[in-house]
Amino acid sequence: xxxxxxxxRVAYVRKLTGKxxxxxGRFTSPDSMLGQLKRGVVDLIGAVRxxxxxxxxxxxxxxxxxxxxxxxxxxxxxxAHDFRCSPLRCTQNPTMGEEWRSG
Length: 103
Hints:
By secondary structure, the chain is mainly alpha-helical. Helix content is 34%, strand content 4%. Helix 2 (30-38) links the parallel strand 1 (22-23) and strand 2. 17% of the residues are buried.
């Protein structure tokens, strides 16, 4: 599945409702996420994997520090071990789970 692959379907749903629309869809690039928000395709993006890769993603976007974002590469190692009851891992963020150390 490509990044933002559900865009057309979500845009269709958006036309049918006056409610806020949330989308997921293998988002890895902050530019893609911001693009969908700015174009009004969605109101909110569920970006779990990108937030695992960089838990400070929203703060960096708000501060205009896009070049500092550690981007998710969509390798799914975080998801692949979910059913094995093993600790969550991320190839882009080896310190995943230790965010408290950075405040």
